[in-house]
Batch of 3 targets.
Target 1
Amino acid sequence: MICLRSSDVVIQNQTLEIPQIKGFPYKEHLNKGNFIAVFDSASVTIYPIVEWIKPESSKEKYYYRTKISSSSRRKINPVIIKTMFGKNSFYLTTIDILEKWCIFSIAIESPPSLLNIKEKENSYLRLIYNNPSKEFFIESYIKWNEWLPISQELEHLKTEINLCIKNNQMQNINEKFDCIKNILNRILIQAEIPIPPLTKEISLSRINIIFSNRSVFFPIELIENLLVQYKIPVFREKHGEKKRVRKISFIYSEELLHSFDEVKKITTSFEKDIKIEIFQDKNYKDYKHNLRSSDIIHFTGHGKAENNYGTIIMDNESIDHLYHIQNPLLIFLNSCHSGLFTEGIVKNLINNNTCFVIASPYEIPDAYTEDYISDFYSLLNPDDIEITYHLNSFKNPLFKIFYRLYSGYNNKIS
């Protein structure tokens, strides 16, 4: 499917005309039976391609014309449209993904529900669920002797997943992720927590997750139709997001085979007026002050999680903070295990006024995630990192499995 802005097409007399657009991939995507999606400021109209009329000469004003017949029109959030196109004249996708965008547009109109997961010493696991749009609240308890074997099974599956990734046995991973998903579904059903609360109108549901006390391995993002964001309680008066990205800093480890290639691929996504800085992790002490003015920091290197605490490795040291940052919009930690626990570097970055942190709870399968990360930056909309994250997850479902989105949460949960 070809997505175009309404300002870039001409529709009249059952004919749709596409003008000359630089880089337009007409040969591959203008086949009969395909679709064209035309976006205005807050809606999309889908036209099936009936019959293309090729131009008689290269001097014609329009590249292609197609006859159009029936069409369907859907509302869609303007921020989604802005994120999808960026500064491009066209966008390529599938009709299935476009359908998810429209459903997502409905979902983001309502406030997200909240699930607080809290261990109470060795007595029980407490789950508190609140859906503000439906004024629904439930507090449920799972006895420790019931939770402990479940927790051990989840940890065992996580270990097996990491071994598969480390040994490049990706074909075995989906089955293990399905096992985790089924366990989590059973827990939520037992706790009588309605996740996701589906209706005929909405088949996607936003939810914020808060871990209190120790972090437990509860990867609820594996459940279908959930739009998950992990929230970290912080206590500050203001937490403003920057709307303009002027400087992006990349830090990479030479020990990772393709880390510099990843950085080079990502940097092609940005406009020339954005300042790009690239550093090696081993020289951190020499450039740490340069990070103060960075709006986005992307780290590709090693990470670890020990004793419920996450860190990254820089200059051969475990780092749980970037002390010299100053209110960055986003820090992307493309490192193994750094996002497994909220305690440690993720929490410290959020408490130091980082608006969003993206980090992984697993080993990183480099060969599978490089394109997903590049797609994320291609979609990057500084006005709404959450929408960017979810739109990229629709295109690349493994992205939301391997990378969690964290942000601050100003309300204290008892």
Note: The chain has three domains: 2-107, 113-233, 247-409.
Target 2
Amino acid sequence: MVAAYIALTVALVAILQAFAYRFWGAKKLTYTRRYTPETCFEGETVVMTETISNAKLLPMPLVRVESMLAPELKYIASRPGERGKKEVVYGEHNSVFSIAPYSTVTRRYNMLCEKRGYYALRAVNITCQEILGVREAQTAEADINAVVTVYPRIADFYELADLSKNLMGDVVVRRWIAEDPFMLRGVREYTTSDPQSKINWKASARTGSFMVNENDYTADIKLRVLLNVQADRYYQTDVDPECIERGVSQAAGILQYALEHGISSSFASNSVDSPLGINETGFGTGKGHLGEVFTQLACLKRQSKMEFRHFLEGEAASGINDCGILIMTAYLDEGMEEVIEALRMKGNLVELCLLNRTSGTYTTGEGV
């Protein structure tokens, strides 16, 4: 009799808790995920933080959160031997939580961002299981907004200058970064590369060391970088990913250098639209615009929406003039040569950066 009473009591408790979890298990349960920082460069690490809160009296003994995780984002242990309550299998990130009433659980993971890209997670699946497992687990989808933008690796500008003095030295330094002698920015200490005519004798006497005038840059200098995402004229996508990635990295280095030197710069490519719905930036200056350029390069797809010759024809038809144009491409054909000549006829200074598909370098030249 006692055993039957105990069995009946256990069965009743099991049924009651099953119904309680059925109606209130997923209620007042919130989950968030974020990356800190939200932007980084290739090869850097970010912290992925997931937080789950249970704002009710009912404890949650088993909550499983399942989501997709881009393979380019790799979990790394923060200390030797660390495992953590998480699983990462075939691009899935699964976390298991036990949450007391009116409590919050926060977990942080160090993530290595191996490749550039725009990684956004908009939803996760949350599965709630009651204590005794009488009923099937409840699964619901929760909306989140976890985004990390991984900028491309930036090729060192001076490294590029050593590889091609024509492009980096003559074009950028002598033509696009021309100092205006009538615009004085200030004074700075003398270096051995400064001509004596720039010495400011009054400032030198006042400071006790040689000081030279520092001129500002000409205000109307513009640079436009055009990248061909086709590594081969006959194929539209991913023929040589490494070649295109080198082009992206080199474009990032050139644009960073130009913007840091006050040059109004822009970027465009013949790629399909990015996740943000754009594939080019307008002209601009400053750190804010540099961030826009890096974001565009991070989102760039290695798939073209049109032949590069037609893309260049659109540039020529836009009326662009009196601009420094750097064309980065892995190949060159007669149709492209004709459009490049048309761009030059409009007063543009056009330079070519021919990406080498085998060695990882490039060649440049004004002639085509």
Note: The helical segments are 2-24, 157-163, 165-176, 201-207, 241-260, 286-299, 308-317, 334-345.
Target 3
Amino acid sequence: MKIRTILILGVIAIALALISLWMGQQSYSWFPPQASAEAQLIDQLFSFLVTLGTFIFLGVVGTLTYSVLFQQAGKYDTSDGPHIEGNVPLEIVWTAIPFVLVVSIAAYSYQIYDQMSILGPMEHIHGSMAIAAPLDASLATPIHPIEVRARQWVWEFYYPDQNITSTELHLPNNERARLTLASEDVLHGFYVPAFRVKQDIIPGRVIDFEFTPIREGRYRLRDSQYSGTYFAAMQTDVVVESADAYQQWLANTATQKPITAYNRAFTEYSKRNNSDRWKIVEPALPPVVNYSNSGIE
């Protein structure tokens, strides 16, 4: 291979690498704000995959484009191409490179998952294997567990230490949160896009789930599984607030008398015209809670 060709290929490779790195950095802006420590790790992994994918995509498409534009046969050339068969070094290279890439991605992904230490169903299957080093030693001890009850189509949160229930999840900022997830009917999914964490809630099982909020604000919790007709209405807010504000909310809520909460799915079902003859699962009754974000579900 001529030196000139090597230099050209080197310049092209550097250009592709720079473009790929730029795309990887841009990928951080494609997501909601990073509201949890786990979100930072997930975004790092995604940025790495975008960088790698961009380099491969541009390299493959660029090579094909060059071949189409500059390696065409003559207009009246009907002869066969040169007879080529077997190239052991090339076959080794194009087998080894994808193998190394796939193993590297798998290892990095597992490292991220292990570092997040979000528990989930692996704790029940593999025991201590699911418990890894926490993101920060200062965040190792989670706050008191919060019970998350999912049913068609409403979220309910129970704080056992204060004996209060709410349709809105409140969490202290910069403290490890531990949830116990349970479904009372079908498969649901706990998903907060700003946290980048998702956990299926499996009927008949109680699943421990941990993450660390790091940004105060109000974020949306959605049911990530198609749990029935009104699954899109199964949304509520997650409020991340300072430790003082969180304790104040707990104290204030504990003094509130239980009330029947607003349930969008139940309200829409009640207004339904039965003349259409479509059979629909009746939503669960609106929960009776100490605190309700009425009207915004």
Note: The chain has two domains: 1-66+92-114, 145-287.
